[in-house]
Amino acid sequence: MLLLVLLLSELGIPSVGAVSDTWASRNNPGIKRNMKTGKQIKAFAIVLGVMGFAVYSASAGTIFQSGGSGTTYTDALGDQNGSANLLRDISSVTVSNDANNLYFTLNISPAGSLASGGAFNYVIGITTGSPTAGGDTSASGDHGNPYGRSISFDSSFGGMTDWIGIFGAGGSGSVGSPYTSYGYNDYAYGTPGAVGITNGGWTKISTVSSNQPIGMQPSTSVSNSVTVTVPMSDFVSNLSLTPGAKIDFDVDSTGTSGNQTAYDSLAVQGFIQPTNTYSSTFQFNETVLDQYTITAVPEPSTMGLIITGLLGALAIRRRKA
Q: Exposure pattern of 214-246 as b/e (b: 16+ CB <10 Å)?
C-alpha cells in the first residue's frame, strides 16, 4: 500500500492531504525545500521496493501446468539437451489416481523406442510446494535426490520430498537385446513414520523391476509409452494425498550414472540449458514445476450402490411405461 501511494505521488496524482501540503509549500520556502528532499527519498524507496520485488519474483517457484485425475501434461518436442537421441525427448505425461494408487503414463517422442533406443532413466520428483517442506536441495552432497543426479527442486518449493525412478528391465535397451518391460523404485526423504523430515537422507520404499509393460502411444509399431502404478501409501510420510490435496512435480529424462544432468523436463518448455554451453553435469535446480490435485474416487461399495440405484430407477420407469 505504501509503495502504491509513493508511486501515485511520483506520477503527480494527489493523495489525501496533498492539497494542504501544496498550499503550505507555496507559502513557505523552507517547507518547499524539505518536500523536495522528501520527494527524492520517496523515489529512492520506490526503486528499492521494485528491486526487492524483482529479486523475490526471480527466486520464487512457479507452476506451469495443473490439473486433476486424467490430465495430460505436455512438453515441447525437440527440446532435449545433449544429443538427438529421441529417448531423451519427453512428449507428455498423463497422471491419474484412484483411492489407492497414483498412475503416471510417460510418453516419449512418437519416433523414439523405449525398447531398443538405449539405456536411460526417467525420474519423477515430488514435493508439497511449501517453502517449509524440508525436502532435499542442491546444497546436499547427493545433488538433491536419491540417485545422485544433478537434479534438484528449488528451496522456494521446499526442496524435493519424494522420488520415483523409472528404468528398463528384461534386456539392455539395444536392438539385439530390447527391454521387455520397465520397472521403478520410489524413495521418501527422511525417515518414514517420523514426525516431519528431521533425520534427512533418502529411504527406499519399494522396487518393481519387471511388471510395468511398455506400450505404444499413439503409434502401433513403436514402443514409446510406459505406465507405472505407485501406491499412494509409499508417500504418506511426507505428502497429504487426500482428495483435494495438491502436489508439485516434474518428470525428467536423465542418464544411468551419478552426477548426470536432466536432458529434458516436462515442466520446462524448451532447452534446460543453452545448447552451445551444454554440460552433462550441469546442476538443474528446478524453479518451474507442474501441479496435480488428488481427485476423489468413489469406493467400490459406493459405486455399487449408485449402479444398483440406477438399475432400480430404470426398472420402475419401464414398468410405468
A: bbebeeeebbbbbbbebebebbebbbebeeeee
Q: Residue 18 has what pLDDT?
A: 44
Q: 319 lies in a domain?
A: no
Say if residue 108 is in the same domain as residue 173.
Answer: yes
Kindly state the helix (H) or strand (E) to which residue 202 belongs, with its residue range. Answer: strand 202-215
Residue 178 in grid coordinates = 530390447
Short-list 54, 61, 135, CA closest to 287: 61
**Containing structural domain, residue 12:** 2-59
The 10s digit of each residue's pLDDT in 80-97 is: 999 889 999 999 999 999
Instruction: Write the pLDDT tens digit of every residue in 5-53.
Output: 343 344 454 443 443 444 344 445 554 444 444 545 444 443 334 333 3
Taking each continuous run of H as one helix and of E as one strand, the counts in the chain are 4, 14
- Give the span between the Cα atoms of 100 and 97, in whole angstroms: 7
Does any domain span residue 310? no
Rounded to an integer, what distance in angstroms lies between the CA atom of residue 196 and that of residue 190? 8
Number of domains in the chain: 2
- If we measure between CA atoms, which residue out of 81, 156, 157, 94 comes closest to residue 120? 81
